[in-house]
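Field reference: sequence -> structure
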Amino acid sequence: MHWTDVEVNVSVWELIGVRMEGLLPAAVLPLLLTMVFYLGPLVQTAMDNPSGFTEELQSVLDVQSWRLCVSDAVWLRNQVVAPVTEELVFRGAMLPMLVPCTGPTAAIFTAPLFFGVAHFHHIIEQRHLYKDSMRVILLVSGMQFLYTTVFGVFTAFIFMRTGHVVGPVLCHSFCNSQGLPDIGSALRHPQKPALLFSYVMGLLLFLVLLFPLTDPFFYGAAPVCRLAPPPVSVC
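Structure field:
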């Protein structure tokens, strides 16, 4: 901000998306939007294991199940530590630095590239484990770079539109819990027509609701948008 002669009358905390104005809708609406996108996988889970799906819903309100989760280091890493730290760094810290130089739209597509590259450390990890050939490792890492970058674009868009980091954190945690949608198993499923319909409806509803559910009207003016040079498109 000092190098680019940018002055903004908000705190650093507000710039990185930690603020109170519009906090509740910022926590609920982006997560709802992400769940709409996962309509197909959620319907498939309910079809394949109705009792298990019901038990998962009940566990959300069960204190004991939360205690078990909190005591699990892997769960904490995937659902809490990784979403919080990665969103604070790659959205909260990186976007306010890019926006004054590139504008909000370019920043949304630039910052996720760093997020995708940051996952290349898995190449070294897999080589140490000697699990697969280098060709397979590079292929898997390339796919991971692709979907983490696409996801990064989505959460960067949410951050820019809402001015909150809580939405990206919760969406990140939810996506970590669900994994990538398994379209292949849906194509082989006995209820394939119904499942494919739910997948398509989820995607269409996601696209229809993307801008309405991220309308700045619900969240107040995003502080990071004040850093943007005119014209401001996404904000």
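Note: The first helix runs from residue 12 to 15.
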